[in-house]
Amino acid sequence: MIKTLDTLAIGESGTIVKVHGEGRVRRRLFDMGLTPGAEVYLRKKAPLGDPLEITLRGYELSLRKDEAVNVDIEMKEGK
């Protein structure tokens, strides 16, 4: 099942399959390590849902919802 990163629930994880966006936005996401094939785990969400804290490549990263909507995630089986 494919979801966008902003729709994951706390504790869900998956693999990045595609990064959307244009120009600077897409380049910024790639520079932060959000590339196809990378495993991500949603650790926390702020009370109003923005920003999100994910674990990616062994470090924690905070993202705004408007950035996270550009990242497609394939959910792990059984989740």
Could you please describe the fold and organization of this structure?
- By secondary structure, the protein is an alpha+beta fold.
- It has a single domain (2-75), classed as SH3 type barrels.
- It has helices spanning 23-31, 65-68; strands at 2-4, 13-19, 39-45, 52-56, 59-63, 71-75.
- The protein has a six-stranded antiparallel beta sheet.
- The mean pLDDT is 89.
What value does the average pLDDT take? Answer: 89
Q: Let me know the largest β-sheet.
A: 6 strands, antiparallel
Q: Write down the CATH topology.
A: SH3 type barrels
**The first-level CATH class name:** Mainly Beta
Main-sheet strand order equals 1-6-2-3-4-5
What value does the Rg take, in angstroms? 11 Å
If classified by CATH, what would the architecture be? Roll
What is the rounded distance between the termini?
9 Å
The CATH homologous superfamily is named Ferrous iron transport protein A (FeoA)
Helix content: 10-25%
**Total DSSP helices:** 2
Based on helices, strands and strand pairing, what is the structural class?
Answer: alpha+beta
Q: How many DSSP E strands?
A: 6
